[in-house]
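[Discussion] Sanity-checking designs against the backbone

I'm trying to build intuition for which residues belong where. Below is a structure token string of 297 positions. I'd appreciate it if someone posts a full sequence so I can compare it with mine line by line.
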């Protein structure tokens, strides 16, 4: 298939999860239905035999990345190397169900104001992945989420970070869907400059959708499209780095999108992130074992 004829470009950034990646790739054709898919994989890992596996496949365009290149930066490279009007950013630890990509793509024809769409993400145990449907983080809903009190005080929060699963199967507008399976309109993606490479592996999907929302675009949650998500298979390989990046992304996102907050609030937010971040890194160090993971979840 000619890349110029593709309906959807699928961009996968991978890091040493060969078996999961291969399972994901094997499911793409059925997930695309009648759509023409162009598949690009940016390999940021060098610790397994992902690269020779990719070179041996005839249905994938492989791009050599780097362990120093973050998720957003690698996705930008994959997107820039293609031209389809729709781009699906997909994690290698996902398994799209049949027709799921086609279902997502149809929403762009139905809604000219849609910049991003996402599916219902199901975790390995069959439960809903709450990251698949979110409101933008704000100091109030972030505090409730971090304290584990979102459910208890949900009535007091107008826009909880994780609003839960809506009733029914209708397409709904939402602030953000998950970067694990995020389909975007290329026009909107390029207009806002793509992913901010300053986010290494967390927060980049929220930041992208926040900038598109500011530009007047909409994000849609499409529960009829279903994708399995075997979560955190790459992040647990670099537990200390990922813990650090998680909290660094919190501050980068807040500092970038809440510049008008009064300085006392900004100081409190920074202090809170520093305390939580130090605690997270110390717990990771305490659990770390040479030659293995640190038990990160």
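Best answer:
Here's mine. Compare freely.
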């Amino acid at each position: 298939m000619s890349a110029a004829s593709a309906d959807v470009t699928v961009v996968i950034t991978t890091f040493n999860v060969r078996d999961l990646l291969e399972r994901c790739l094997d499911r793409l054709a059925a997930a695309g239905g009648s759509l023409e898919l162009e598949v690009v994989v940016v390999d940021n890992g060098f610790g397994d035999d992902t690269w020779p596996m990719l070179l041996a496949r005839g249905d994938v365009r492989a791009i050599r990345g780097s362990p120093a290149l973050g998720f957003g930066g690698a996705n930008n490279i994959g997107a820039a190397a293609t031209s389809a009007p729709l781009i699906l950013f997909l994690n290698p630890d996902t398994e799209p169900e049949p027709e799921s990509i086609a279902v997502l793509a149809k929403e762009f024809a139905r809604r000219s104001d849609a910049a991003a769409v996402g599916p219902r993400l199901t975790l390995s145990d069959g439960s809903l992945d709450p990251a698949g449907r979110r409101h933008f983080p704000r100091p109030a809903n972030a505090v409730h989420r971090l304290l584990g009190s979102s459910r208890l005080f949900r009535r007091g929060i107008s826009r909880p970070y994780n609003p839960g699963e809506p009733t029914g199967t209708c397409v709904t507008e939402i602030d953000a869907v998950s970067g694990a399976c995020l389909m975007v309109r290329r026009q909107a993606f390029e207009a806002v400059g793509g992913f901010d490479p300053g986010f290494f592996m967390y927060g980049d999907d929220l930041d992208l959708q926040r900038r598109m929302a500011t530009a007047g675009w909409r994000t849609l949650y499409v529960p009829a499209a279903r994708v399995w998500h075997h979560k955190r298979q790459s992040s647990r390989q670099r537990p200390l780095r990922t813990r650090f990046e998680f909290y660094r992304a919190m501050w980068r996102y807040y500092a970038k999108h809440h510049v008008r907050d009064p300085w006392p609030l900004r100081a409190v937010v920074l202090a809170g992130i520093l305390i939580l971040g130090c605690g997270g890194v110390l717990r990771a160090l305490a659990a770390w074992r040479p030659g293995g993971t640190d038990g990160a979840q």
